[in-house]
Amino acid sequence: MDIDWTNFTPWHALAGGALIGLAASALALLNGRIAGISGILAGALAPRPGDTAWRYAFLFGMMIAPALYAAFTGGAPTIEIDADFPALAIAGLLVGLGTPSAAAAPAATAYAGCRACRRAPSSPRCASWQPASRPCSSRGTCWEAEMRALYSVAAFFCGLVFGIGLLVAGMANPAKILAFLDLAGRWDPSLALVMAGAIAVGALGFSVAKRRQRALLGTPMDLPTVRTIDRPLVFGSLAFGVGWGLSGFCPGPALLAAGAGYGKALVFCVFMVVGMSVHRIVERRRTALAA
Q1: What's the count of helices (H) and strands (E) in the chain, helices before strands?
Q2: What would the pLDDT profile of 103-157 be if each residue is shown by its tens digit?
Q3: CB within 8 A of 72, min separation 6: which ones?
Q4: How far apart are CA 150 and CA 160, in angstroms?
Q5: pLDDT tens sequence across 194-215
Q6: Of 137, 156, 122, 116, whose CA–CA distance to 31 is shortest?
Q7: Across the chain, which distance is largest between two alpha carbons, in Å?
Q8: Phi/psi of residue 34, each to 5°?
Q9: Cα-based distances in Å from 142 to 51, 139, 149
C-alpha cells in the first residue's frame, strides 16, 4: 500500500469530522433526529404532516454551505468529478435504491405509529408521540407553533454545520473518496480521520441523547433501535456501496456539489431521487398486496 502523502490532509479531516459530529449531536439533542442524509431526503420526498419542514430546512442549510464556505475562505471548494454522465446516472440510481432499502422497515413502523396517533391522539400508546403542550400566550401565538419554528431553525443550522464539515474535510470531493477506497493505488487515508473526528465528538452528544425521552425542543426522541441484520439491509448496503464506488458520491456530498453548481453532481442527485421514488412505489404496492 502506497500512501498519497501529497493529498493526505489529516488536520482538515479531523476538523471537518469534528464539525460533522457536532452537527449530528446537535440534531439528536435538539430535534431528537438522526443526521442521516439519505433518510432525511427520503422523508422529504414523501412528506407527512408535521414531519417535513425540518427536513427541508436541514437540506437547505447543507446546500448553501458551499456559498458560505467560499465567502469565508475566498475560494470555491475543490470538487473533482471524474466519472462520466452514464456512470453517475447508474451510481445515483443504485444509491437511491439502496439507502431506503436498508431503512425501509423502521421507517414503515414509525409511519404506522404516526398515523395511529393521529386517529387516537389521547390513547396512552400515543402519549410519547405528542409534543409538549403549553397554553397560548396573551398575544395569541401558541407555544407549540413557536417550537415548530425553532425545530426547523435548529435543523437548518445543523445542516449548515454538517455541510461545512464535509467541505472542510474534503468529503465533497469524489476524487478524495475514491482515493480512500482504492487500497491498491495511492491511498489517501483522510476519510478514516474524518470518521475518527466525527465519532470522538458525536459519542459525547449521543451518550446524552440516548438517555433522554424527549429532545431539548420538546419532541420525542426518534433514534434508531433496530439492531437486526436482514436481507433489505444487506442488499441495500451492497447497492449503496457499488454506487458510491462508481462515483465517489453519497447523498450528502452529492447535494453539496450540486449546491456548488456542478452539473454532474446534479445528474447523480436526479437519478438518486428516481431510485428513492421507485423504491417507495414498489414498497407501497408490496404493502398493499400483503394487506
Answers
A1: 11, 2
A2: 543 333 333 334 444 444 444 434 333 444 444 444 444 556 677 889 999 999 9
A3: none
A4: 15
A5: 999 999 999 999 999 999 999 9
A6: 156
A7: 68
A8: -95, 135
A9: 18, 9, 11
